[in-house]
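Progress note, project year one: complex with calcium ion.
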Amino acid sequence: MLEVVILAAGKGTRMRSDLPKVLHPLAGKPLLAHVIETARALLPSQICIVYGHGGEAVREALDAPDLVWVRQEPQLGTGHAVMQALPLLKVGAGGSASVLVLYGDVPLIRPATLQRLIEAGGEGKLALLTAQLDDPHGYGRIVRVAGKVTRIVEEKDADDAERMIREINTGILVAPHAALARWLPRLSNHNAQGEYYLTDIVALAVAEGTEVVTAQPAANWEIEGVNSKNQLARLERILQRNLAESLMAQGVTLADPDRIDIRGELICGRDVFIDVNCVFEGRVELGDGVRILPHCVIQDAVIGPGSVIGPFARLRPGTVLAEDVHIGNFVEVKNSTIGAHSKANHLAYLGDTTMGSRVNVGAGTITCNYDGANKHRTIIEDDVFIGSDSQLVAPVTVGRGATLGAGTTLTKDAPPGELTLSRAKQVTVRGWKRPIKKNKE
Ligand code: UD1
Ligand code: CA
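Model obtained:
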């Protein structure tokens, strides 16, 4: 049986922000949400989150039925933090549970790595996730004697020889629940930081004859923590690059894998092409052969096969496009469905609209969906042609095959098959002369 404890009570002073550290977004989602998702992938019996700094905001932002929360106040160290969680973890009938400790500010750790750590721990061992770093500064060091781990020493408590050790403690470990319950009350805070170090359980395990084993992550970025905006940005780039790699592995063509941002779930069909500087938010689905041209922002939208979006298009939540739809530059679409082969190629706002097939939306068209208090729908039936610079004041319907003359302000339904326009009659004033600037005397 596996129990997970996520440590998330720390302060995060170096973020210099009012937002609690673990709520800072990475790929559009709080750091802690990434760790919770990874924990869930391991199918544990329980997930307990130790929170503290930032107060209830962290719990309120991420609460879910499968999470147990414990507040650590004050924060007296990582050992003290795990001690708060332990009584909340119900040991199963067999009593042989293992506890996996994760950090809420280490968001890129992969389930496969944790699985290897758990397997290394097996029944009854203490398993540490360690890494070899060129620059181990700041981390706890893994002290070995004749190859066997004997203890962990924190940077601030280490002597010169120990500081030379390049094998570091990532902080992530697996320990038998029963052993933790024995070790934690025996921790002391007689150290450089006056804290109860979780890392001191290693020496206790060794003294008891409990085997201490280690596992390593496949990549060192998995164990990187976020303590500053700089590190947050660094991990964002690594995560985005990983997402881009997996899209390309699925056959998506990216003009530049370093210039795409996915803040949610992007589902792509075959032969999708995505040009530079596009941002995808929420759940976005791109059908076969879709082309996304540069500089688009697309959120919670479904784009039908063969459609072409952008450059500079904005698709907001509730956009559903059928096949071969063209949405061009400076066109915004929100909560609208657009039928096959319809086109809005330049400068338009389509909000709360139901549009049929083969509609041509002229440049500068606006659906006026908001009357200052309520939103209304615009219905545009199949084969409509909307002249440039038209305003459709909702609720309003443009009948099948209708044409709207350029510059129309449509306030009543346009009947099918007819030309409707609202426009002052054009006049020419014959013989009119432009004023001429008078000479100063
Ligand atoms: C800890 C480890 C160190 C390891 C490093 C990896 C200890 C004593 N040291 O050091 O060996 O190399 O992580 O980054 O464990 N936290 C709480 N409550 C507390 C203190 C911390 O929840 O009272 C949480 C923090 O929010 C953070 C994690 O525990 O997510 C680690 O705390 P941090 O202060 O960063 O530990 P380090 O001193 O860096
Ligand atoms: Ca740290």
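DSSP finds eight helices and 33 strands in the chain.
Helices lie at 31-41, 56-62, 78-85, 111-121, 160-163, 177-183, 201-208, 229-249.
No further modelling is planned for this target in the current period.
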